[in-house]
Amino acid sequence: MRESVRRLVTAAVLLAAAGCGAKTANAPPAAAAPPVTVSQPLRRQIVDWDEFIGRFEAVQTVQVRPRVSGYIDKVAFKDGDVVRKGQLLFVIDPRPYAAALAEAKAAQKSAEASAANAAIELSRAERLVDKGWIARTVYDARLAQERTADAAVRQAQAQVAARALDVTFTRVTSPIAGRVSYHRVDIGNLVSATGAEPTLLTTVVSLDPIHFVFTGSEAVYLKYQRADRAGTRTSSRYASNPVDIQLQDETGYNWRGRMDFVDNAVDSSGTIRGRALIDNPDNFLTPGMYGRMRLLGSGAYDALLVPDSAIAADQSDKVVMVVGPGAQVQPRKVRLGPIVDGLRVIRAGLTPTDRVIIEGQQRVRPGMKVAPQAGRIVAAASTAPQPPLVSQPPAAQATGADGGR
C-alpha cells in the first residue's frame, strides 16, 4: 500500500515537472525593438514672414467730370477699354464756345485798336507839352488813357485765352492711363460743370503698378517697432521690405512687391494701415480683388526645423519624440514657429544634437527601446524672396516716430 502511494506521488511530481518544462519551451521570445528613422534637426538661417489679408487698389482713381456745360455730342470710347493718357473720351457741343471765342477775339482787336490810338495821342501830347502848347493836365489825361487802353488789351487777351480753354474743354480726355469704366451719360444729354457736384461722366483707374492695402494689429506693429529699434529689421517706413501675394485661387505666392507706405496712427479698432506696391505689367490684377500677403517679419536668425509629421499633440502641448541614451524614446515639449520651406520651425524644446524620430513615431511610446536608423531632414525649394540687408534708419529719421510696419 505504501509502495503504491509512493509511486503515485512520484508520478505526479514527474508530470508536474514535465508540464513546467513544456510551458518554458513554448514561451514567446522577447519582442524586438521597433525600427525608427531619426535625424538631427535641420539647422539653417531663416527669416519670419507674417501673413495679412488685404485687397488691391488702384494707385490713381479719377472721376471724369466736365469742365464746361453743354450737350454730349460723342462718346469716343468703348466701355471697359484700356485707355492712354490724353485719349479722347467725350465731346461736348463746341459751337457755343467757338462763338464765344470769336467774340472774344473781336473784342481783343477792338481793344488793340483803341490802345494804338491812345498811344498816338500820348505821343502827340508829349511833343505839345514840351513846347508848352497844352496844359500838363491834358498830357496826364492822355497818359491815363493809354495805360487804360493797354490794360483793356491785356484783359481782352485773357478773355480770348479763357474762351479758347472752354473750346478745348469740350473735348474731354483721360487724365491718366488705365482702364475706363462705362459711360454714365449718353449722347444728347445735358451735362453741367457748375453746381455743388458737376456731372459724373465716367471713372478711370490706373493698373500698373497697383497697390495692395491691408491692416495689421497693434501687436504686430509693436513687434516691428522693437525690431527696428534693435536693428534686426528695418521699418517699412524707411525700407522697401519685400512682400509676396497669393490670390484666392492660387496655391503659391506668385506676385512680388515692396512696401511703400505705413500709416501715421493706430486707429480705434487697434489696427494700422499698410500698403505695398505690386508690378502688374499684363493688367491681370484688378482693383477690388482680395489676396493673402506675406511680409518680411524679422531679421535673419539661426533656427531648428523638423517635419510637421514629427510633431504630436499632447492635449494643448506639442511634443516631439527623440531617441536618448540607451536607444530609449523620450518626449520633448516644444514651442512651434512658422512653416518655412515645408518644415516647421522649433522655437524652443530641442537642441541641435537631438535625434528626432521623423519616421515610425506611431509605433513607439515614451520609455520604449527602439532601433534607430539614420535619416535626413530635407527642406523644400524656397519660394520666398531673399530678405534685404538690415540697415539702420537715418539719424534724422530715427529721432522722429519710431519704427513701423
Tell me what the structure shows.
By secondary structure, the chain is of the alpha+beta class. It has 4 domains: 35-46 and 302-374, conserved putative lor/sdh protein from methanococcus maripaludis s2 fold; 50-59 and 206-299, Efflux pump adaptor protein, beta barrel domain (Elongation Factor Tu (Ef-tu), domain 3, Beta Barrel); 66-92 and 171-204, Beta Barrel (OB fold (Dihydrolipoamide Acetyltransferase, E2P)); 94-169, Orthogonal Bundle (Helix Hairpins). It has helices at 2-26, 95-131, 136-169, 218-230, 395-398; strands at residues 35-39, 42-46, 49-58, 61-64, 70-75, 82-83, 88-92, 171-173, 178-180, 190-191, 202-205, 210-217, 242-247, 255-262, 271-278, 290-296, 301-306, 311-314, 317-323, 329-340, 343-348, 356-359, 371-374. A 6-stranded antiparallel β-sheet has the order 2-17-21-20-19-18, with no helix packed on it. It is elongated.
